Amino acid sequence: MLQKATIRQLTILSLIVVTPLGLLSKFYKGPGDWWFNDYAGDILYEIAWCLFVFLLIPNRQALIKIPIWVFVITCIIEFLQLWHPPLLQLIRSSIWGKLLLGTTFVWWDFPHYLIGCFIGWLWLRLVWRFHDD
Q1: Is 2 within the bounds of a domain?
Q2: Three-state SS for 8?
Q3: Is residue 1 part of a domain?
Q4: What is the pTM of this model?
């Protein structure tokens, strides 16, 4: 019989799956590539952040709070893309800055952030449900 995994093991495994998918979505070439390159990554970005924060705060009370805060913070980051001070532009000039802060404000990102946080919430619930007490 298989031993149940700990909550951190399940969360790390989830991050190992989601993070590369999110990065690869930026390079996908094929049917619907415009959507995958621009919006699938938004959804996976939200899920990854939910999982990352849950890795740091793995408790039941955090299951609902984490996706809400991830959504709020990423919406703030999206609005920051309207602001172009030299420091933010310097950060955005690196690949990591582009991945974390983005470069262009797009209204259509918000529904994808919401979808990503909803899926992130469902994912956290699954991790919580299947972990070893």
Answers
A1: no
A2: helix
A3: no
A4: 0.90
